[in-house]
Amino acid sequence: MPWGERTFGMAAQIDCFISYASPDFEAAARLHAFLVERGFSVWLDRERLRSGFDWYAHVKEAADTASLMLPVLTPLWQRSEWTKFETYAADRVIPLIFSGEWEEISTPPLQRFHFLQLDLTQRGGGWDSLESA
After folding, report:
1. CA-to-CA distance for 41 and 14, rounded, in angstroms?
2. Please, is 28 exposed, middle or buried when counting C-beta atoms within 10 Å of its C-beta (0-12, 13-18, 19+)?
3. Would you call 18 exposed, middle or buried from its count of C-beta atoms within 10 A (0-12, 13-18, 19+)?
């Protein structure tokens, strides 16, 4: 099993949960690959959910038990009710800006994590910070 993963209910205990709006899948997939290459156990819906799963229960359990929530912030993330459902209850969140400005794409519940935000709109600085976080 990958680092930090153990069986827990329907889902496995995971290091990171990626919350993203469906049209932003390419950004989420890049983030997933980046983290997996570095040995993290990562929950990404298209990697973990299978036909016939009770997807709501699996998403909820994974979001509730993940060690870290990583929202892929874009204007689309902000408008999705599902991304908010996944993210708002998390205790440990690192908001990742993929498109837009913090003031325009964040939501009031994310304001408590403003000091942790990482701007990943440019390759380099933010990605390096994410690796060391």
Report:
1. 5
2. buried
3. buried
> Which backbone phi and psi does 2 adopt, to 5 degrees?
-60, 160
Contact 118, 133 (CB under 8 A): yes
Pull the structure tokens for residue 90.
Answer: 């998390």
Could you give the CA distance from residue 2 to residue 19 in angstroms, rounded to a whole number? 20
Q: What angle (nearest 5°) sits at the alpha carbon of residue 22, between those of residues 70 and 5?
A: 40
Which string of DSSP letters, residue by residue, matches 77-126?
Answer: HHH-HHHHHHHTT-SSB--EESSS-HHHH--GGGGGGGGG-EE-SSSSHH
Q: Which residues pair with 118 in a beta bridge?
A: 96
Strands in 16-19's sheet, in edge-to-edge order, are 42-43, 16-19, 68-73, 96-97, 118-119
pLDDT, one tens digit for every residue, the chain (133 residues): 343 433 334 445 789 989 999 899 999 999 999 999 999 988 786 665 556 665 566 667 777 888 999 999 999 998 988 888 888 988 899 999 999 999 999 999 999 999 899 988 876 557 777 766 6
